[in-house]
Amino acid sequence: MKTVYRYRPGWAALALALAVATASSILATAAKGKDDKNPTAQSRFAKLNDSRIHYVNYGKGDEALVLIHGWTQNADSWRDNVADFAKRNRVIVVELPGHGQSDKPQTTYSMDYFSRAVDVVMRDAKVKRAVLVGHSMGTPVARQFYRKYPEKTLAIVIVDGSLRPFGDKAMIDQMMAQFRGPKYRDAVGQMMAFISGPNLSAEVKQRINSASMNTPQNVLVSAFEGMLNPAIWGEDRINVPVLAIMAKTALLPANAEESFRVIAPKLDFQVWEGVGHFIMMEKPKEFDAAVIAWLDRNDLLKK
């Protein structure tokens, strides 16, 4: 009998597919060609069909660490991480379509659409291969990118994201009804408050809420529907190195590592205690050190 791995339903399980951030500070300074923490930041736009896709570039080279935010979020998710990463290698921070300074067309915001946006950014930046870092919804985006462009994918970093389906139909139907309703901002705000960890400052919480509240309703509904598409949750293998940094929650399945490893044999699986969904925002220095150490161990993105 085939074993089926599925996360148990609940808000904390759903959190494994959601992401958080806001763009105001990093993008305002990057638009001027500099950033307080890294003077080499450059704000740029790539083109996907008729839509502009915004990204922030740090450094040079044909390989890069590509940071992908999650649901309702934008480049500011990585505000406190880019300085450490950019000291080591080229960094590109993507703003997915419908988010941040990227255009927000009336379209279907699928994981495939998002992965194509990552590709046009890499082509515009003349990056041939990348290590993709996906926070929450950024994980299925990175996985879809790997499916479409395996030759461009050096490795994947999962940041409290999932390789498995989440939730049950009743829970999902209830949430989607709230997201489609007139009080959708209340529902999104409650979600963000629930998955926030104990180390988030008031300032970071405000950044998270600001990003969420500024995401158009059609975008957040369509993107969430994209995460529910059964086609993105296949058993196909990821044959490049994968680092998973997960928050320990009451509903994190005991078999999470096992279920991930079936898909990603070259897996380094870490569970962090005392953090919530926004690991890189709660513990930025620790997160940066863990990612850089893993890059070093796997001889990735060497200058």
Strand content: 15-25%
In CATH terms, the superfamily is: Alpha/Beta hydrolase fold, catalytic domain
- At the first level of CATH, the class is Alpha Beta
Rg over CA atoms: 17 Å
Q: Which oligomerization state do the chains in this entry correspond to?
A: single chain
Tally of distinct domains:
1
Low-confidence stretches: 1-39
Q: What percent of residues adopt helix (DSSP H or I)?
A: 25-40%
Q: What's the β-strand tally?
A: 8
Strands of the biggest beta sheet: in what spatial order? 1-2-4-3-5-6-7-8
Major beta-sheet overview: 8 strands, mixed
Cα end-to-end separation? 47 Å
- The SSE string, one letter per element, is HHEEEHEHEHEHHHHEHEHH
Give the number of helices: 12
Query: At the third CATH level, what is the topology name?
Result: Rossmann fold
Based on helices, strands and strand pairing, what is the structural class? alpha/beta
- Could you report the average pLDDT, rounded to the nearest whole number? 89
CATH architecture descriptor text: 3-Layer(aba) Sandwich
Q: Would you mind describing this structure in some detail?
A:
The chain has 303 residues and is an alpha/beta fold. 38% of the residues lie in helices and 17% in strands. It has one domain: 3-Layer(aba) Sandwich (Rossmann fold), CATH 3.40.50.1820. It has helices at residues 11-14, 24-30, 82-88, 111-124, 138-148, 169-180, 184-195, 202-213, 217-227, 256-263, 279-282, 284-297, and strands at 41-48, 51-58, 63-68, 91-94, 129-135, 153-159, 242-247, 267-272. Helix 4 (111-124) crosses helix 5 and helix 6 packs across helix 7 (184-195).
